[in-house]
Write a structure and sequence with these properties.
single chain; alpha/beta; eight-stranded mixed beta sheet; two-stranded antiparallel sheet; 34% helix; globular; proline biosynthesis; cytoplasm
């Protein structure tokens, strides 16, 4: 049975999902995947990711995918070897790459007869009350119609002044916007560690309490250099945004997406607090 339409109230609510074990019962999940997890040497992970999302979609859960990768996907078509430094070339790569990326997702989703809906946002869209309401209304309707929204930053028109900075923050703000029960942040690393996992003495952090400032954590990069823009610090910052709005967060490796969505004891769990302000 299809879940009933969610409330359209602008006041976020505390998620009913309070632990990994409750993830299979989530009504609405936002999944974020980084560029390095679905491009280049890891491009074969995209169909695997779609398999996992389709399985969750099939059990009635509403899924939103926040996907990086437009710029990285567009680079070969512009005959560029690395991520450009100037904004105009980034915008050009995004314009080409977004088209190719959404085609790849839809081609993979066709196996399950699931239709994707492309949603491109800038930070300004979620800061302005009118455009934020419009974005929320569009997302709600897509989910009611059983469409799988694929969200990315609108890099083709975004300037440095109105950029989110990274898609981890975008995913957290989308989770707030639609009152998600869970935000799943996928990357190349399987959890948050006390220091970069390749350093001696690094230890995996199983759970982060809502009020834990992680003062003893030594932050380092997450993901492949030259492709993605995020890292452990950006993921923690995003987790805190979502958790403050009442949405718990799980940080895990992209290769573990099935286990993560199945409620297995993997990754790092960020406890949600009680929401303090309007979503978005």
């Amino acid at each position: 049975m299809m879940p009933s339409a969610p409330t359209t109230s602008s006041i976020p609510t505390l998620s009913a999902v309070t632990s990994r074990a409750g993830i299979p019962q989530a009504r609405r999940v936002v999944v974020k995947v980084g560029s390095s997890s679905i491009s280049g040497a890891n491009s074969a992970q995209l169909p695997m990711l779609v398999d996992a999302l389709a399985a969750v979609h099939g059990r009635g859960t509403q899924i939103v995918l926040v996907s990086s990768g437009a710029i990285a996907t567009g680079l070969p078509y512009l005959k560029l070897d690395g991520r450009p430094g100037d904004l105009a070339t980034k915008q050009a790569a995004a314009a080409v790459g977004q088209n190719v990326l959404i085609f790849r997702y839809q081609e993979s989703l066709d196996r399950f007869r699931i239709v994707a809906g492309q949603v491109l946002l800038t930070a300004g869209d979620l800061e302005n009350p009118d455009t934020r309401r419009n974005a929320r209304r569009a997302m709600e309707r897509l989910l009611e119609l059983r469409i799988l929204p694929i969200v990315n930053e609108n890099d083709t028109v975004a300037t440095e002044e109105i950029k989110f900075g990274d898609n981890d923050e975008l995913a957290a703000r989308v989770a707030r916007l639609i009152d998600a029960d869970l935000l799943l942040l996928l990357s190349d690393v399987d959890a948050l560690y006390t220091k970069p996992p390749w350093l001696e003495g690094s230890q995996r952090i199983d759970e982060v309490a809502f009020d834990d400032e992680l003062a003893d954590v030594e932050f380092g990069g997450i993901g492949a250099a030259g492709v993605g823009t995020g890292g452990a610090r950006t993921k923690v910052a995003a987790a805190k945004i979502a958790a403050a709005a009442g949405t718990p967060v799980l940080l895990a490796a992209t290769a573990q997406v099935n286990e993560a969505l199945g409620g297995r004891a993997i990754g790092t769990w960020f406890e949600a607090g009680r929401p303090e302000r309007a979503a978005g």
